[in-house]
Amino acid sequence: MSLEIDFEGVKFDNPFWVGSGPTTGTPEKMLQAIKAGWGSVVIKTVGDSLVRKGLRPMYNARRDDGKLIAFENVELITEDSLETWDKYIKIMKSETKVPIVFSIMGAAQVEEWSKLARWSEERGAKLIELNFGCPHGEPERQSGAFISQHADLVFEYTKEVVETVGAPVIVKLTPNVTDIVEIAKSVERAGATAVTAINTVASLIGIDIEREMLLPPIKGYTTYGGLSGPAVLPIGLRAVSLIHSNTSLTISGVGGISTWGNAVEYIMLGATSVQVVTHTLLHGFDFIRDWKKGMEDYLKRHGYDSLEDIRGRLAPKIKSYSYLEKLMDERSPIDEEIKKIRSE
Q1: Is the pTM of this model over 0.90?
Q2: Which domains does the chain have, with CATH numbers?
């Protein structure tokens, strides 16, 4: 029984990656994750001219009876310079042989993306993820999700990077678009072979109505952020299934994963690897041991030898409304359906 994966020619012991975020912002945190048993880490997105001072507080959550529903951040890319990241990468290379994924974000000038891609490859990047998905902060400067919301820009920036480096390029997509398939196809046309789907969903987490205060409260104000956590799982599953069914891209699935079963869902819809951020922020890294065992037991219980046996297995069963309409013989009363859902 094996959890090994091949992602664009790069081998990983298992499909679980800690996604780019606060828990991959220092070598200490990344090494802690790798020692706990994660397949890889995606470094906190590095930049050059876009590096900015972070807001505080930058996180907030919505809960129901204490259980997390959704999590929001107003975080941008790393606050550390490329010189600091040079030191971080040297530490990583001296401490582990696990391939790590580099995440980069340049400014509106396409040349800065090429520069960062070369910087990554020169430091041993086996995979380079282009962060076209950040839903807040950078779109106002025509980067991040601004790029990912325009198929022509995705094509232009991706093509530039693909022609600059030899390492496989992964494009991280925003879900905040009308048609994510159109965007994914522009990635494919540009010569990249992989995507990460999805980045966080543009959001406003909520209001403390008793204190008449927007959340998270920043000196009496707030800003729009990116939503993650369990609530975005169905959005991520939809995006991955659409991309898998309409392109030949390799997919890293991310969004709302809080159990090993959620990871299986992504893989069954076409993902090769899965990325987890919010759950690591709230629960650390050590749960990965139970997740790997749960996934291994699942494969064994169902008679599968590897994750490749289930990858994309259920994606073809997603059909149009008109297709399903033709299959219906009789329709149960809506009241009975609602009653069943209430009792679950």
Answers
A1: yes
A2: 5-318 (3.20.20.70)
